[in-house]
């Protein structure tokens, strides 16, 4: 154990939530690097993490195995991703009595879109991943030129760029203003830290620059990564295409979204046939199933034992939609909680990685936006055929583009519930005007409302970050 976290490599001598896939040699590399980071102060408190610059005099391992070991720390890289966006969304509802019993004040505040939410831990965790990626990239840059051409080195560089892009994407959905085509230079984005010195140039960029950096990083990663990763906790070429498609969708760049989703599906388009799964099982889905392109998880924020799926969402599932029985479990109070977890467990940890199912939906939405109704229907039907009872399945043939767009939005709602993707969709729909309803919470006699034009669609930055200076707070 290191700093109470465990080494995080996931090998046989240490079980990190059941991840058993790295060898003991990599485990020794992990110990060496984590000890180095402890000496450098990275694993200390939040203020030190942001305020102290790494010790440049420390001896840093420079082999590709060392770099891979940093990226194979599943505790840091693949676990505990941002959960506030899940609580911001209308996927989840919490009763007044259950809310009163929640002891995590940040979770309580995020559920009602409160400005008092202290999201410092989530901010720090994402920037820790950024630092992890930057450290790897710097290690590779210090290698002899001949070594950097090796496939293993190219792979590791691609993984680091993917991780940095994914970190910035997830941070942007909570802390940066929504992307708006043609006005993206006007809004605040994120501090873009692109070196291993996390204190260097720590100022906010524009939202345009933030997304441009994501696109730049993940585009480079696409050409560096292998078509198949050794483990699904590592990035691959299809995973990078999927991330690029997700980023492009958020930007409204449908040409790029269509290109990326098509390229990803060409390499890996497998879908689970939900008709072969057991809806009565407590855990219907296996971890690392055939649809998973990249595996990561987020906390529930508020335990799945006390939270429930929004009743409006549950009612949207048709009787013959197999997701209705596979995703949701009836509870004694007559409401439902979530069991459709691609992490293969029912707990307070939800899968929030990248899947082929999401890619089919991006392919459908982008194709329709570009005038390809047949392509949109084809992608949508490929997905729904694997989600519907076989005896009643009839391919969709929606002629009206507006109705088809509405159906695609509905299927995103049904397919991607509890994966941290609903809140980005809500902000995107509000920004484009295709959805105009606000969000409401009722707790005892208190009603909380979030309107589409509210400044609170972007969370306040953690006070510890603003107190450092050079970082402008979000507007209120």
UniProtKB/TrEMBL annotation:
SUPFAM superfamilies: TPR-like (SSF48452). Belongs to the SusD family. The keyword ATP-binding does not apply. Residues 48-249 form the SusD-like N-terminal domain. This is RagB/SusD family nutrient uptake outer membrane protein. It holds the Pfam family SusD-like_3. It comes from the Bacteria. It is found in: Cell outer membrane. InterPro entries: SusD-like_N (IPR033985), SusD_RagB_dom (IPR012944), TPR-like_helical_dom_sf (IPR011990). The keyword Membrane applies. GO terms for cellular component: cell outer membrane.
């Amino acid at each position: 154990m290191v700093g109470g976290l465990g080494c995080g490599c996931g090998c046989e001598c240490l079980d990190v939530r059941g991840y058993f896939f790295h060898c003991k040699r990599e485990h020794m590399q992990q110990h060496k690097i984590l000890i180095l980071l402890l000496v450098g102060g990275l694993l200390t408190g939040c203020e030190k993490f942001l305020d102290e610059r790494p010790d440049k005099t420390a001896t840093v391992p420079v082999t590709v195995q060392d770099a891979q070991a940093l990226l194979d720390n599943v505790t840091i890289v693949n676990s505990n991703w941002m959960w506030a966006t899940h609580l911001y969304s209308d996927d989840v509802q919490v009763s007044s009595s259950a809310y009163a019993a929640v002891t995590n004040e940040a979770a309580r505040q995020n559920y009602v879109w409160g400005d008092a939410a202290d999201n410092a831990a989530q901010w720090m965790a994402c920037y820790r991943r950024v630092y992890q990626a930057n450290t790897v990239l710097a290690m590779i840059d210090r290698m002899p030129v001949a070594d950097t051409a090796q496939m293993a080195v190219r792979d590791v560089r691609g993984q680091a760029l993917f991780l940095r892009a994914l970190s910035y994407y997830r941070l942007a959905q909570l802390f940066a203003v929504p992307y708006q085509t043609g006005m993206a230079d006007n809004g605040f984005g994120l501090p873009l830290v692109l070196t291993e010195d996390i204190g260097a140039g720590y100022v906010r960029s524009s939202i345009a620059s933030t997304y441009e950096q994501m696109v730049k990083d993940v585009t480079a990663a696409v050409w560096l990564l292998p078509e198949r990763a050794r483990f699904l906790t590592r990035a691959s070429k299809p995973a990078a295409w999927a991330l690029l498609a997700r980023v492009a969708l958020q930007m409204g760049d449908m040409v790029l979204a269509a290109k990326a989703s098509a390229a990803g599906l060409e390499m890996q388009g497998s879908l689970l046939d939900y008709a072969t799964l057991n809806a009565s099982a407590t855990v219907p889905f296996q971890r690392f199933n055939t649809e998973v392109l990249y595996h990561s998880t987020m906390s529930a924020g508020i335990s799945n034992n006390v939270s429930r799926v929004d009743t409006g969402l549950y009612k949207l599932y048709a009787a013959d939609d197999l997701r209705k029985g596979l995703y949701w479990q009836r509870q004694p109070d007559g409401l439902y909680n979530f069991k459709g977890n691609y992490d293969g467990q029912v707990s307070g940890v939800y899968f929030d990685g990248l899947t082929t199912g999401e890619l089919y939906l991006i392919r459908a939405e982008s194709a329709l936006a570009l005038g390809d109704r047949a392509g949109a229907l084809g992608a949508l039907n490929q997905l729904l055929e694997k989600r519907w009872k076989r005896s009643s399945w009839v391919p969709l043939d929606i002629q009206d583009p507006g109705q088809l767009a509405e159906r695609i939005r509905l299927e995103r709602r049904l397919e991607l519930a509890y994966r941290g993707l609903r809140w980005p969709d809500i902000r995107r729909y509000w920004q484009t005007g295709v959805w105009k309803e606000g969000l409401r919470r009722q707790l005892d006699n208190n009603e909380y409302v979030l309107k589409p034009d509210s400044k609170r669609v972007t969370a306040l930055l953690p006070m510890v970050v603003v107190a450092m200076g050079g970082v402008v707070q979000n507007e209120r």
